[in-house]
Amino acid sequence: MESQTMDQLKKELPVEQETLVLSDDVNTGLVLVDIVNGFCTVGAGNLAPVAPDKQISGMVDESVRLAKMFCEKKWPIYALLDSHHPDIPEHPYPPHCIAGSDESKLVPALQWLEDEPNVTLRCKDCLDGFLGSIDKDGSNVFVDWVKTNQIKVILVVGICTDICVLDFVCSALSARTRRILTPLEDVIVYSPACATFDLPLHVAQNIKGALAHPQELMHHVGLYMAKGRGAKVASEVLFDIPVEI
Questions:
Q1: Closest CA to 34 of 215, 194, 224
Q2: Which of 93, 155, 179, 190 has the fewest CB atoms within 10 Å, i.e. is most exposed?
Q3: Beta bridge partners of residue 158, listed in sequence order
Q4: What is the pLDDT at residue 93?
Q5: What is the structure's pLDDT at 4?
């Protein structure tokens, strides 16, 4: 998409972003959405990037930075992993992230999280990680995670900004309104640690049933929709580190 058009869109649909400073005073949880090989590692699958992608690489790098800080502080992390049964398609997408495959595993830069005691891993079989956290007995692993850790703020990062990240954020906001997620107060999307895929119009036109999906535009739309639903959007995340005297 031409930069002039994108600039005009951002002018017409502005997304106010803030600097977020995290401290020990407020219980904060980090939610990682689908930072798996099948969406992030070049050539890993049908929905993986076909070439190195700056937005996706930046998202992974920022997510790793946050994850390391949260683990250092022993703050809770909830990692959603897209993981599908081979016989249950997820229309309109081609087969992807089949359960047990490398596609459904965390990217190499985050695989160390599997051994961290403050991390909860949750495989999900649908777009919306909130719904994907529901167990067969009706309980919800994400809801339990919020309540157990008495989380007041969740910081959401991952892929895709306008699809799985947005769906999860919207459901979390609705659950907060219904007091299902008490004591949760704020849902914050960290824009540099989110990304989406790029499918230009000229490519989509040659794929039956495909919709064009310009990366920068849809990333912005995802942030705009999240903001409109009641989430906060942060452009910078800092940690308030106490100064020892």
A1: 194
A2: 179
A3: 33, 194
A4: 85
A5: 84
Exposed, middle or buried by CB within 10 Å (0-12, 13-18, 19+), for 204? middle
Query: Where do the structural domains in the chain lie, given as residue ranges?
Result: 22-239
Q: What is the DSSP letter of 182?
A: T
- Whether cis (ω within 30° of 0) applies to the bond prior to 183 is yes
How far apart, in whole angstroms, are the C-alpha atoms of residue 97 and residue 106? 11
pTM of the model: 0.94
What is the pLDDT averaged over residues 65-75? 97
Residues 111-136: tens digit of each pLDDT = 999 999 999 999 999 999 999 999 99
Structure tokens at 239: 């940690």
CATH of 22-239, one of 3.30.9.10, 3.40.640.10, 2.60.40.10, 3.40.50.850: 3.40.50.850
